[in-house]
Specification:
CATH architecture: Up-down Bundle
Order of helices and strands: HHHHHHHHHHHHHHHHH
Structural class: mainly alpha
Largest sheet: none
Strand content: under 5%
Mean pLDDT: 79
Number of helices: 17
CATH topology: Growth Hormone, Chain: A
Low-confidence stretches: 1-20, 60-82, 241-272
Shape: globular
CATH class: Mainly Alpha
Helix content: over 70%
CATH superfamily: MFS general substrate transporter like domains
Oligomer: single chain
Distance between the termini: 67 Å
Number of strands: 0
């Protein structure tokens, strides 16, 4: 304690201006920078998928992949349905699109954490921006289905690599930037769909609307290269195997911005011990699995099993809303719930993230019985459950990465943040696979 106070006093004497208005300004610039990075990283993907349907609709091909994109982008239009089922089923489960969207991201998140540390962050950001821009351009100008599919893959690559890179990047900043990142990613789902729909409603063509969205990759560039105020230790353009952020720099930032309790739980380790070995990385993964990765994966499995395996089947014939309108409202309320909970980290933090897993599984089981026996009397009950589902998923995400950042030793923290992001993608992929037999079973009734 005395040593900590002495260091704090020394820092205050050496750099008094850091603790004043400038320090507060830097803190908020970084928070806003990560908010915009989260928004751009997910926003481009949301908008691209929505626009992909309208672009592909003008093509003459009737490939089944296009039909699946129709179902995801416009909320399962009635013209593609089979009315032989009481659930008003679509011919193909929306899990098909979910798998196509998530598998490139999952591959990146599994493999990249072991090698991506060799690539400086500046190059990673440029690559993500290029992939996002290419996805817009390919889907906009494509004249064949396979080109549009490549556009979807590019968007998935940009989103997956961006997520693990920006989560890793957060270890070079005050931990509150995770609040900005979480809130920004939550806002992307709501803002992306609403902005695209608004521009289309204003009678702009889908192609023109999609080209306007090229501003999103530009905003990502501005957020990273202009808005953020990184530590000098950030490996932006070059990085050696032994390069590590200096202990003094990290301690200075931590003393300025964190409480005494945080100092005791996340004191920096010696980061001059050389690169982290493969054995150490595997040990870090083993330590993260049970408390963080598995609960996060389980939350997202249950969440996306609901979204892609059950949500389409929660159809109320006696509602004034059409099936497509009901589905769109489910998706909107889900995104609102995610946005609210991903923005809640400043208000309340939950260390026991397994609680969210348990509650989300209860949600999924309840809705399975609701679909099977159709005992829910009103669509408003489902609206409430879907909103609650989004709240659970968003809360699990932001709290998981907050406590990984807080509790992991500093020399392993960058790797831990990157590799833990595989949990949500793995859960989503398994949910997409499980949606196929679920869809087939219920639609055969």
């Amino acid at each position: 304690m005395v040593r900590t106070m002495e260091r704090s006093a020394s820092i205050n004497a050496d750099q008094p201006e850091q603790l004043g208005t400038n320090g507060c300004c830097v803190k908020w610039r970084n928070w806003c920078g990560f908010w915009l990075l989260g928004l751009c990283n997910n926003f481009a993907y949301v908008v691209m998928l929505s626009a992909a349907h309208d672009i592909l609709e003008k093509q003459e091909s009737k490939n089944s992949t296009v039909t699946a994109s129709d179902q995801l982008a416009v909320g399962l239009r009635a013209g593609n349905r089979s009315n032989s089922s009481r659930y008003d089923c679509s011919p193909v489960s929306t899990g098909a699109v979910l798998l196509a969207d998530i598998l490139p991201t999952l591959f990146i998140k599994i493999s990249a954490p072991f090698v991506i540390h060799k690539v400086p962050y500046g190059f990673r950001v440029l690559f993500c921006v290029a992939m996002a821009a290419a996805s817009f351009l390919l889907v906009s100008f494509s004249s064949a289905v396979w080109l549009s599919i490549i556009g979807v893959i590019f968007a998935s690559i940009s989103s997956g690599l961006g997520e693990l890179s920006f989560l890793s990047l957060s270890v070079f900043f005050n931990r509150n930037v995770l609040e900005g990142w979480g809130s920004g990613t939550g806002a992307a789902g709501v803002a992306g769909s609403l902005l695209y729909a608004g521009l289309i409603q204003a009678h702009l063509s889908p192609r023109t609307t999609l080209l306007i969205m090229l501003i999103v990759p530009i905003a990502m560039l501005v957020s990273y290269f202009v808005l953020l105020v990184p530590e000098p230790s950030l490996p932006q353009w070059s990085r050696s195997e032994t390069e590590c952020p200096p202990v003094d720099s990290e301690e200075r930032q931590r003393l300025m911005d964190e409480s005494e309790d945080d100092l005791e739980t996340s004191a920096p380790e010696d980061r001059t011990m050389g690169p982290v070995t493969l054995q150490q990385k595997l040990a870090v993964i083993k330590g993260l699995l049970l408390p963080f990765v598995i609960p996060l994966g389980l939350v997202y499995f249950a969440e996306y099993f609901i979204n892609q395996g059950l949500m389409e089947l929660l159809f109320f014939h006696n509602s004034s809303l059409s099936h497509a309108e009901q589905y769109r409202w489910y998706q909107t309320l889900y995104q609102v719930g995610v946005f609210v909970s991903r923005s809640s980290l400043r208000l309340k933090k939950f260390r026991k993230t397994w609680i969210f897993s348990l509650l989300q599984v209860v949600n999924a089981v309840f809705l399975i019985f609701a679909v099977l026996f159709q005992f829910l009397p009103s669509i408003w009950i489902v609206f409430g459950i879907i909103l609650y589902e989004g709240l659970l998923g968003g809360a699990a995400y932001v709290n998981t990465f907050h406590f990984i950042s807080k509790e992991t030793e500093s020399r392993y923290r960058e790797f831990a943040m990157a590799t833990s992001s595989v949990g949500d993608s793995l859960g989503i992929a398994v949910a997409g696979a499980a949606a196929f037999p679920t869809h087939s079973y219920f639609c055969s009734l």
